[in-house]
Amino acid sequence: MSFTRRKIMQGAVAAAILAASSLPAFAAEVGGIKFPDTVTVAGQELVLNGAGVRSKLVFKVYALGFYLKEKKTTVAEVLASGGPRRIRIMPMRDLTSDDFGMAFMKGLNDNVSADERTKLLPQTKAFGEMFAQFPGLKKGDELIVDWTPGVGSQATLNGKKVGEVLPDVAFFNAIMRIWIGDKPVDATLKPKMLVAPQ
After folding, report:
1. Alpha-carbon gap, residue 58 to 44, rounded angstroms
2. Considering the domain boundaries, does residue 8 fall inside one?
3. Is residue 152 a contact partner of residue 163, using CB atoms and an 8 Å limit?
4. Which of 2, 27, 68, 167 could be cross-linked to 37 through a Cys-Cys bond (beta carbons 3.0 to 4.6 Å apart)?
5. What backbone torsions phi and psi does residue 77 show, to the nearest 5 degrees?
6. By residue range, what is the domain housing residue 156?
7. Domain Chalcone isomerase: where (predicted)?
8. DSSP 8-state symbol, 149
């Protein structure tokens, strides 16, 4: 190989490496859906804590990922995690807003005490009203709920804000407990949310 050709090849390899380094690194692929190794929320980098697929009977419903400032392995540590947090939901089939909303609310109510339910009722109601703002979730949509300290919880659907900001961290924890609480909606998914796939 001539010197000129070698230099061209070296340049091409370097360019390919540089291009690859600018793309998001994917830490996990669950159900064919990729979850980036890191995301940025409120100007802070978060890492993928865990990801998995929510199944019901024989159907795959959605892929789910939790992002935290640093990886945690217990429910208590996840719920006490400081800084911003993110829940990312990627539907794997079309879902009506009624079906998804009712399942969401049932999972939330199943994992909070009666006292907590009373305290969180205004925010739970506001969050439930969010589902009335769109007809449903389509396969390939992206539903995100971010927690930002000092601001609150904000949901976005395909990058567009939906619903109002809900200020109480206890409510965001109640949402997380849908999947990692004492009565998770999918018992096989719970452990996957506590350890990032390798």
Report:
1. 38
2. no
3. no
4. 27
5. -65, -40
6. 25-193
7. 27-194
8. T
**Is 16 inside any structural domain?**
no
Q: What is the pTM of this model?
A: 0.85
Contact in structure between 86 and 125 (CB atoms under 8 Å): no
In-domain check, residue 198: no
Instruction: List phi, psi (to 5°) of 96.
Output: -75, 155
SS3 per residue for 6-70:
HHHHHHHHHHHHHHHHCCCCEEEEECCEEEECEEEECCEEEEEEEEEEEEECCEEEEEEEEEECC
Instruction: Assign residue 115 the CATH number of its domain.
Output: 3.50.70.10
What lies within 8 Å, CB to CB, of 2 at 6+ separation is none
Tally of domains within the chain:
1
Token match 């400032």: residue?
69
Residue 12 lies in a domain: no
84, 149 contact by CB (below 8 A): yes
